[in-house]
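@channel sequence for tomorrow's demo:
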Amino acid sequence: MKSLTNGLTIEKLNGHCAIQDQGRDHQQHLGFSGSGAADLYAFYSANKLLSNSLNCAALEVMMGQIQLKANNTCTFAITGADCFAQINGLDIKHWQVHTLYKGDCLTLKQPKNNIYTYIAIAGGINSTPWLDSQSQTYTEQKLAFGHPALKVGSDIPVTHLATGSTIKSQQAGQTTNAQLPESFYQHPLLTLRFMPSPLWHKMTTQQQRFFLQQTFSISPNSNRMGYRLANKNPLTQLSKPMTVLESNKLSKPVCYGAIQLPAFNSPLILMKERQTIGGYPNIGTVMQTDLYRLSQMRPGEQVKFITTTIAQAQQQLATFNARFQ
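structure tokens (generated this afternoon):
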């Protein structure tokens, strides 16, 4: 194991902060959530700017409102929601590389748009792993698994590779075209592409068309477990024939991006801290790259649905991964 040192200390926290990597997707058969960074585009971008491994754990800050003090000199990259970051009261830009010297304070305010901000450290955060991942999951932290929950006074452990490092490259203080957020995110209306399930194919053409014509709003009752959607038109057209088909079904495994219809009402899209099994009707699965976009959307923002194929979803994911290689 790499030697550790205290790199940063949380001095103020009015939102939520957690350590995240890609997650533990290969442990769900044990009943534990996959977890991981909600927005892998911003997460990967921060690590790429620092020439870190893409899976190098970073801080995921929800709605900003945090102050960190540097206990050693370190270089970091900040991506995701723009929280009007400052070092010692001086404004700095997001999607760029910066250096904190011993005693410096990094402050994030509340963002006007989006939700999650990522702070990656050159050399990496090295917190206590659990089930082959450093990702922290809210529900499982209550069981004392992995690294303790972050709060005011928490120290962020980093490797000795991180301390005293400054990046001397053209990337420092610059935003490269590969990381421009405008080329990835879609606002104010996001079209979610999904792969239909067998249940979807049992619906009538009229029912399918009705669902695809709807515009849904992100519900305030949304979180890292799942995004609940609200719409003005009740989905009663889907209920009668579907209830007969699903009435005797047992709970079954669920996956990231599954579109569930509790009581054939408002859709629920399963996100990074989803459960591992569920019994609600499932009409399909949203492709991963659109889920990264969805994770940054706030209550009241709108989404629509359109069908796609597994081949198209795989191609999109391959293209996404290629831009970070």
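heads up for whoever presents: The longest helix spans residues 310-322.
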